[in-house]
Amino acid sequence: MTMRLFIQLGPEPIPSALPSPAPGPETGAFVEFRGIVRGDEGGHAVGGLVYEAYQPMAERELARLADSLGIEHPVHALRVVHRLGPVPVGEAALYLGIAARHRAEAFAFLAGFMDRLKQDVPIWKTDTLPAGR
Amino acid sequence: MTMRLFIQLGPEPIPSALPSPAPGPETGAFVEFRGIVRGDEGGHAVGGLVYEAYQPMAERELARLADSLGIEHPVHALRVVHRLGPVPVGEAALYLGIAARHRAEAFAFLAGFMDRLKQDVPIWKTDTLPAGR
Amino acid sequence: MTLLYFAQVRRITTLTSEPLVTESPLSTDELWQQILRRHPDLALLRPAIRLARNGEFAAPEAVFQPDDEVALIPPVSGG
Amino acid sequence: MTLLYFAQVRRITTLTSEPLVTESPLSTDELWQQILRRHPDLALLRPAIRLARNGEFAAPEAVFQPDDEVALIPPVSGG
Asked: Taking chain B (133 residues) in consecutive chunks of 10 residues, what is each chunk's mean pLDDT?
């Protein structure tokens, strides 16, 4: 099975709604995850975080990760968006949208993808923004 | 920790975007799941499914399930929407939105909630709609 | 007592609900005897049906009161 | 060879990239010797840094060519 894959890294805010990456009649489960910047980082109040990427490698690693996980947990399609630069508290730094036939594949893919993203994809939190008042 | 809980059962289509049930600065993970009607059911092409509920009990069971799972996997808030009546292929019959501090709680809550929803909540697929052409 | 029928159960009874007049409380077995007297075709499905009393799953030792709302819950399939 | 620096590594080198002129291919150890000669303060971080060669993680036995793009990848923290 071929997985449809959409990868996007950039400074734009992540939209509050993104279409399913595989809207066909064979999709029974659509799971979305947003990693949201919290108002505290290491115990300190912050106004946001700043993300940086080694962009071409990050995109390639994300695609490789998707392909490799897709063998174990076949899903129809994946959309990954990672915001770069400053991200204010309450906004999403990361979005994943996974379409699959059944929820079990989608859940397993999601958990595995997040674990490996946080190990192998060259994206960094490099700074904090000052907390507002 | 108190969980914010929004439960809605009814015939209206589920919106393509629903706000996070806990948009505060303490939320680091927002997971959404849509159970979507597929174009095949038991090997036959269908145009949709018809859902029926014992509504007051279903709402109570959903709340009870959320409370009980929230002890094991503390999350900030849950929104559950289940569409009733006819649901065409490609549209969502079920929506879950879970806000939590970390993704691990949200993922565990989501998987556990789905397993138990499919055992204990009095909602049924009662019929299929004829496949279009 | 009001009996509520859903999904497969409703297709067998061809009713969504019906009254069951009883003067005294009924045990689970007594209630099932009354139900099966009216709808013998439910016998096959009985092992899969859970009873709910006033909107909550009833324990096997539950006692059903004359004014209870009792739902027959066949295997669920939501989501 | 072009060296790329990110995150903690960039804060130590105070550069995002710099050229490293070499006539012959370098082993991982030889490359690190060159890097640490320029930026000795990276020594402490070295065990945590993975090298990427032309956008892919390099195996320990990798050989770095004069025209490669080499990135120093400190522990990542995306998501």
From this structure: 92 95 92 97 91 98 97 97 98 98 98 97 96 74
Mean pLDDT of A9-24: 94
Chains with 3+ CB–CB pairs under 8 A to D are A
CB contact under 8 A, A94 and D78: yes
Chains C and D share 3 or more Cβ pairs within 8 Å: no
Q: Residue C65, SS3?
A: coil
Q: What CATH fold (topology level) applies to the domain A4-11+26-129?
A: Aldehyde Oxidoreductase; domain 3 (3.90.1170)
Q: Could you tell me which of B105, B92, B130 has the C-alpha nearest to residue B1? A: B105
Q: Residue-wise over C31-45: b if at least 16 C-beta within 10 A, else e?
A: bbebbeeebeebeee
Instruction: Give dist(CA A14, CA A18) in Å, integer.
Output: 9
pLDDT band at A2 (very low <50, low <70, confident <90, very high): confident
Number of H helices, E strands in chain A: 2, 9
Quick one: CA torsion of C36, C42, C45, C49, rounded to 10 degrees? -60
Nearest CA in chain D to A119: D76
Helix, strand and coil percent figures for chain B, each rounded to 5: 25, 40, 35
A and D touch per CB criterion (3+ pairs under 8 A) = yes
- Encoded tokens for A54: 């080694």
Residues 6 or more apart whose CB falls under 8 angstroms from that of D50 comprise D57, D58, D73
| Of residues D8, D73, D79, nearest to A122 (C-beta) | D73
Residue D7: name the closest of B133, A93, A50, C22 by CA: A50
CA distance A18 to B39: 22
Q: Are A29 and B34 within 8 A, CB to CB?
A: yes
- Predicted confidence at residue B1, as pLDDT, reads 63
CATH architecture of the domain covering D2-73: Roll (3.10)
Going from the C-alpha of C74 to that of each of B11, B44, B52, B104, B123, the distances in angstroms are 22, 23, 12, 33, 10
Instruction: Tell me the per-residue pLDDT of A66-102, one tens digit each, with 9 for 90 and over.
Output: 999 999 999 999 999 999 999 999 999 999 999 999 9
Q: Where are the domains of chain B?
A: 4-11+26-129
Judged by CB atoms closer than 8 Å, whether chains meet at D79 and A123 is answered as: yes
Å between C30 CA and nearest CA of chain B: 23
